[in-house]
Write a structure and sequence with these properties.
five-stranded mixed beta sheet; 29% helix; 27% strand; binds zinc ion
């Protein structure tokens, strides 16, 4: 099931659950696919995504699915609709 992530806490709670994060960055015009345990998908990490802030500033959106196929489809759909670049994270790609 695809779930929209609206807050940092929601994502932090999912950290130990296997799954995939679709991170949409509006300013960068980029859609990135991560595993939820990637450091770039960790709001606590200084380099990690910050869903609360992104939502507040309208700079991005985030989706999580336990299925890579489903997360991938969502990422491709957003990339296509917005004309964004779709990137599979090189750090957590597996
Ligand atoms: Zn990653």
């Amino acid at each position: 099931m695809l779930t929209e992530i609206l807050t940092d806490e929601q994502l932090i709670d999912l950290y130990t659950t296997p799954g995939y994060l679709v991170a949409v960055d509006y300013p960068k015009e980029e859609v990135k696919l991560h595993t939820v345990d990637c450091m770039l998908a960790d709001p606590i990490s200084s380099v990690g995504v910050k869903p609360s802030k992104a939502r507040e500033n309208k700079t991005g959106e985030f989706w999580v699915s336990e299925s890579r196929k489903e997360a991938n489809s969502k990422a491709e759909e957003i990339a296509k609709n917005k004309g964004y670049t779709y990137i599979i994270c090189p750090i957590c790609n597996r």
